Amino acid sequence: MIALKKKIKAAFTFFALAVFTLSCNDDADIWEDDNLETSANLEIMLKGKENHDVLADVKVNVFAKPKGSEDFALVYAGTTDEEGRIEVKNLQVPNIVRLEMADTKYPSGDPVIAKILGQKSASMELQINTLWQPQSIMDRTGWEVIDFSSMHKTSNATANLPGNVLLDNTSIWHSNYAGGATPYPHWLVIDMKEAKTMHGYALKQRASNNGPIKGLEFYVSDDNVNWEKVVATEIPLTNPGEWHTIKLQQPAKGRYIKFVATSPHLPTAQFINLEQLGVY
């Protein structure tokens, strides 16, 4: 049996924390060819970050890229048991494994990637934020608004720009209202620069009910040409500056997202503002 000479422990971010530990033994004969291992059992456990409660019945996808393979392939799709555990048996080694949430119960976070070498077994524990918070939004660094319906121009060159929705501040995108407001629908397209797996959307208008949005839609695309509608819903009229989160029924994946505001809470206010827009 191949085993590492010492224990290796690595930490991976999965919102707050994910820890991957390879179990192994001290063995002076780790390079004996006749004892090479070709498979390992992978145990995965999910726990809530807030109080470390086990997360039962949570959907998870496991992708693997064995040595010699160029791409990841799905090797397991299922749900955690009553103890929050999943076991993937006879996983080919050496291997690179990618673990993704496939559920809309909780924010997804970025995939966790780890190497599995020659151990008979390996284990992974994920501590997941079970409550949504603004930090759940994916990092938007480098993202770009590449198309939009309108904006209100002023002498301030940075005011009301559509790209302001990607900034972590109180700058806003404001649709045009000069010479009569541009009517609904209002929309913008964001290029995330690479394909992302999304479990939901979050948006916030500025701290005033000036142009509150009611109906909205979200679309996703791989090429900015062919679009799939993944959300059509309404959000309540709430306190100014409050975050609205919209969970997807199924995870969606794509490089481009399109936000469309379809109707207002106040029929006389045909314009909108949007302070932040993100995905999780």
UniProtKB/TrEMBL annotation:
Signal peptide range in chain numbering: 1-28
- Name the domain of life this protein comes from: Bacteria
Task: Report the Pfam families cross-referenced here.
Answer: F5_F8_type_C
Specify the F5/8 type C domain's residue ranges: 168-279
TM stretches of this protein: none
Keywords, ordered alphabetically? Signal
* Protein name stated in the entry: Discoidin domain-containing protein
To which species is this protein native?
Rufibacter roseus
